[in-house]
């Protein structure tokens, strides 16, 4: 193992000793004293069985595992539309394995691509907490010995895991649906967006380009948060090996899902290969997820999500862990927005089996974790194929395209491109894997905004035609739910293309598709809680330095201390935002996961 990976793992183990022990004690208690299906009262059991016909006798006789299906199906979200018929097929496959299956519950699955830049986006991050609560409700009936988690996109996988890990004594497998086939090239799509931002193309042309990019069922093909989720589930050993990026509607996709159901039936508490999810998700698997994130140039949103997932299992990971790992982990993948290829090109070049095999070989991944497929991660370094009608796994071979995938010995970059920034503005994160190196340091006058719509209005009015650090504050979890600010990307990209030195500083989030413009994000403390980002004024010189790891407003300390913090705007109303006031009021800080439900769980 790489010494820095081991050192960070040891640091996390030591920091988490008390909370992880409390979590494992919870698992032991639940395993011994949980409400079990055979012990439920007769009326309770009758209610649980009343909705099924074919499986009622098997359930009544307690023959085999009863699998709870927690599904995020809806047909407004392309990635999740593929789940429409999964439950009925999974029930058939469960019978093949001597088990039964029921839909335990549904969880909401909102699409950030639809809400991006609008009021509904303020519900996005806390939809993750809602999904965690919904998962807990689904599994609370005591009628399931295992669970299949059907979810893919941005907040859905983290939310499913946060809820599922509170039932960590149960075996669970996450079941993806795969990416849509490739449409218009991502760079071509981005170019049309930038042309539209400056009025060089019509709305109809923009819509045509967007529809050509997002054109069918399946996950969006850029390497944003949704596809980073799938990468993480592979390196954590929570999928069937190689399941992440197989297209929907294929025989291989169907057989991987079938194998997942069969495998669930084998790893229950009553058998001799018990693999509870709370044991699978340990400190080493969390480190593997962070390493995978850095090695592939994944989404910045996981600087929130991975700490939240970890805390649900009693594990405490912070941004310093990411920063130290980033310095030690080579970047071996270039997938849009960090390259020209989409995830289908990534899969064709070797995909996750290549990445995992190579990172195990270089000592960057813990190979000895408990996975749902078997002991150790090595099985995830093989590629699923069909041998006739049978599912098999084979070595992925060398990289099929070295512009997309390389070995750790010859990486695109010697480090993972995520850094902590610290200074008198606070503590923030920056992703530089897609930023040209001559843009890693930006020092320019600030323009301060409280709403991304005001940034776009200033851009359209020509007020930002200069070197500028755009500061967007009151975007943290306590202020407005921490919406993504991805809608700023085309405008800021246009300014940078015009030769200006441009950076973004915010206590909010950027998208998993953030790219070439340097962005200091998740700035903490947030403005609403008195963070120094609330003291910046228009015209102040701000320095964003990803080389030195600093973020400063270049104002004398006594002048800064004498300033009154900016007044926070009132919380938005409408679009259901009032209902999420409880979450906003109790969310912990970004570095702890920006979660309200975990803040109340004692971790």
Automatic annotation (TrEMBL):
Boundaries of every Dihydroxy-acid/6-phosphogluconate dehydratase C-terminal domain copy: 404-594
Keywords: 4Fe-4S, Carbohydrate metabolism, Gluconate utilization, Iron, Iron-sulfur, Lyase, Metal-binding
Domain of life per record: Bacteria
InterPro entries registered for this protein in UniProt: 6-phosphgluc_deHydtase (IPR004786), Dihydro-acid_dehy_C (IPR042096), DiOHA_6PGluconate_deHydtase_CS (IPR020558), ILV_EDD_C (IPR056740), ILV_EDD_N (IPR000581), IlvD/EDD_N (IPR037237)
Coiled-coil ranges per UniProt: none
EC number, as in UniProt: 4.2.1.12
Cofactor comment text: Binds 1 [4Fe-4S] cluster.
Pathway: Carbohydrate metabolism; Entner-Doudoroff pathway
Record family assignment: Belongs to the IlvD/Edd family.
Protein name (Swiss-Prot/TrEMBL): Phosphogluconate dehydratase
Lineage: Bacteria, Pseudomonadati, Pseudomonadota, Alphaproteobacteria, Sphingomonadales
Name of the coding gene: edd
